[in-house]
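Morning F.,

Quick status update on the modeling queue. The single chain you submitted on Monday has been processed. Sequence for confirmation:
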Amino acid sequence: MMRPSDAAPAPPPESWITARRVTRAVADPIERFMHISASSGIVLLVAAVLALVWANSPWGESYDHLWHTPITVGIGPWVFEETLHFWINDLLMTVFFLVVGLEIKREITEGALSSLRRAALPIAAAVGGMLVPAAIFLMLNSSGPGQRGWGVPMATDIAFAVGVLTLLGKRVPAALRVLLLAVAIIDDIGAILVIAIFYSSGFDVQGLLPVGGGLLAMIVLKGAGVRSPWIYVVPGLVLCGGFLQLGIHPTIAGVIAGLLTPAQSWFGKEGFIKTAREAVEEFQQKAEDPERDDRDLMAPLQKLALARREALSPARSIEHALHPYVAFGIMPIFALANAGVHLQGMSFAEPSSLMVMLGILLGLVVGKPLGIMVLSWLSVKLGLCVLPPGVTWRGLFVLGASAGIGFTMAIFIAELAFTGSELLGVAKLGVLVGTAAAGALALTVGSVVLPREQPKSITDISAGDLESTASYWTGEVPPPKAPTRDGFQVRM
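Structure tokens below.
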């Protein structure tokens, strides 16, 4: 028998019950899908395939015409006109990089990068995963027009990479997923530096004024205790415009804004509980007053809303709020606008085209896992770091193969490296083929070398390993000394 508490809540007042049932029937499966870890990667894949099919269909011209549609923004004499492709790659991707900046800030303040001991292994792995692919590309493209694309195979797509590990299910230990996220975050930092330093278009000193003004406004607002993110939109736009005028890609403004976002909560968990109780008690007292005015109830509700907003840091709250829009909106739109490579007429007769294609393909599929494995192994042998408990060298190779999934960031760098060049299509095709090959390699090797599932109970793993597995990334206790894994001696 169903209890009253088990019954579905009544629909909101003044709602149409039939329409609400239809809405929930559509929305509920979508919400469940969005909570699956690999779902954003699936949406991204669908968008990429759709772009590729569309660009090579009989309606391929409409694909190009759509993204070259001019869009004008401005008031009076201040008018700015650019193509839809520009607004996606420069404005929408700035929001993507804002989330990247927030993730970097979180990892530095409280995550896997908050101490040198915890950050040593992911830093070593990420550096190897960037240097070796770039070196392989430059070996094949030491001169000529293709040389500029050395930054393309350095990138890792977090959504796709995490999606691959999710598809491996219980074979992947939690520590390996955390390590992949840390490596991908450092990889993003490297990509941001590469974009800012090597893929900027000239330097116009007139952009220094808006850049300085936007930064100063953000710093002053932060120092004044302004916590609402909407107040920072205007100086953020000024910062974007300044970087664009300066000759540096405006997405860097998103990273800076993310790094400047406060990472400490005001109320905290305890403060939220205390304030919430006081607000509820005040609300109850006023609600029970027979002579009350409903406007009197606003004060405790506003106090409760403030406590709720400040229970977590602005960085965490903004990242949580923007993540679904970035994962299920901005990134698929970017893929749809940029993954449409025209295969008809693409020729590899020119040596530079073939070398760019091979450089990106080998950089992602071979260079990424090789670089991650070699530098990680050297760092461990030198005693600079240890493998997290539960992570084996076989698992680290699977991580390296997953990191070879470049996609979003790799295509973004290709757009910057080969703008207006015939090599752009070849570079994008290399990214798509390399990403698919790296994902297939990670899934195949992971299915073969990783155990079917991790230990489930305390009888399957020692108490010491349980404690060290949980505490390695939190920094509460040091990891175990000198375990042997897969024939390698892991040293402190």
